[in-house]
Amino acid sequence: MTPTIVEQNGKLKMVLGSPGGSTIITSVLQNILNVIEFDMGMNESVTVPHFHHQWLPDEIKFEPLFDTITFAGLRKKGYKIDQSNSRILGKVDAILVLPNGNLEGGADPRGDDSAVGF
User: Which of 74, 81, 89, 96 could, after both became Cys, cross-link 50 (CB 3.0–4.6 A)?
Assistant: First the structure.
């Protein structure tokens, strides 16, 4: 769901989407930021742990294996942290256009997806 097309400087940069109900927007945004702001490749981006926050319940849900270094700072600001085993926080499948024009697919390992090329 939520098929997303991202352009940069008027050219296609990536396409991505995710099922997941209320976690869709968070999952898609995290992957866009992972690539644009944190210079991750698409496969790395869809593989790293996810987090999700919404109005109700008012807590930040983190997948197990998430780097907990920022938890103390978040708690200090009043955020409730939930690391309990939970449902999958989105399964993103995506394609990134590399600077040389090649395509890099990313298939989220949380599902039964795979990325192949031709």
Answer: 89
